[in-house]
User: Fold this.
Amino acid sequence: MGASSDVPALRRGLAVLRLLASRPGPLSAAAVARELALPRSTTYHLLAELAEAGFATHFPEERRYGLGVAAFELGSAYLRHDPLERLARPLLRRLVDSVSRTAHLGVLHGAEALYLLREQPRQPSTIVSDVGVRLPSHLTASGRAMLAHLPDAQVRALFPGVASFVDRTGRGPRNLPALRRLLTAERRRGWAVEDGYVTAGFASVAAPVFDHGERPIAAITVTFRHVCDAECGETWPELADEVRQTADALTERIGGHRT
Assistant:
């Protein structure tokens, strides 16, 4: 281990990397120093070290700095380890053991919800949301749990017209205003509910997982049998509380922050 005096420098270097990663384009050293409240000399030293190690790139004509190839390689290696699934699996298992219902980990893939992980109780029900399955995000509880925390412009881009709103069972939002109303209510409530929107006779409750920038990176969902002739308005708050606790635990595990 290096000297304890190296730790502040490491933290500052990581702060520079995070700042570069959070911006759409390269930054000047002056902008980095201003954003992080660092002395100019310290900022130039950190950027030079990061550039030498390949984690930053200097664009001399622009007098700016961006992420380097090593940062991309590190991110690619991170994804190869399936960290989200590895961190989520034991949490989902505990949730399933507690509620005796099927649980999923899902992410947004364009305008669809993509299921990465599934844990089942000892007597599982047959449902369509298996690992690798993609479903319309506006119909699924997992999809809307994430959509509810995206900027309005991004939601509009994902659903540009009425043709974007797939119908499976005759239930669920069929246009952007209806989706916005639903997302607003679910954001305020803290969880999303799906009652027969995807498969008749099944309902789901979902809560979002957030990354370090308070962006929705995934959702935890519990799905179960529920039959009603029309939407009964049930929101299953007790079940949702357990789902939210699991989602919050995963947020904490990945170093995220809840909005």
